[in-house]
Amino acid sequence: MSRLIRWLFGLGRSTLTVRDDGPVQTVQVRLSGRELLDAREVLTAYGLISAPPPGTDMLLVCGSGDRSDSVVVAHNHQKYRYRGAQSGETGLHNGVAGSTILLKANGDVLIIPGSGKVVVQGTVTAKDFITEAGVKLSDHTHGGVEKGSDATTGPQG
What we know:
Blueprint: H1 2-8, E1 9-14, E2 26-30, E3 36-42, E4 57-61, E5 71-76, E6 90-94, E7 99-103, E8 109-112, E9 141-142, E10 155-156
Parallel strand pairs: 3-5
Antiparallel strand pairs: 1-2, 1-4, 2-3, 4-5, 6-7, 7-8, 9-10
C-alpha cells in the first residue's frame, strides 16, 4: 500500500524556466538523481499568474501511479516565498522582484512595488484620496491665484 501511495505523488524541483507559450504551462522536474520528467503540465487556479523560477519545489500527482502520467498541482520556492503573513492574510508576492500586494488581517491593502513604481493602464477612481503629504485631492486649495493665466502655488491641505 505504501508503495502505491509513493507512486501516486512525487516531490521534486524544477530544473529549467517554465514554458508558458502553449495552452498549458509546462516544466521540467527532477524527482531524484535518476528521475527527470520533461514537459509536466502545471495546474494553477484560474486568474492567478505564476511562472516559478528554476529550483522551485513541485508536487506532482500521478493519477495512474505512472510517473510519466503526472501533473504539477502545487509549487513553492523556499528562497522567494513570502514570510511573515498574519492569520487571515492573503495576497500576491513576487519574491524575485520584491513586489507584494497583501490583503491584511485588519482590512488594509498593502501594495509594495519592487521597482518603486505602480503602473495603472486605465482609470483610477477613488472615493477619497489623500496624498502622503496629507493633501486631500477632492477638497484642497491652491494659493497664489491672481488673474487669468497666472500660475498657482502647490496644493494646500
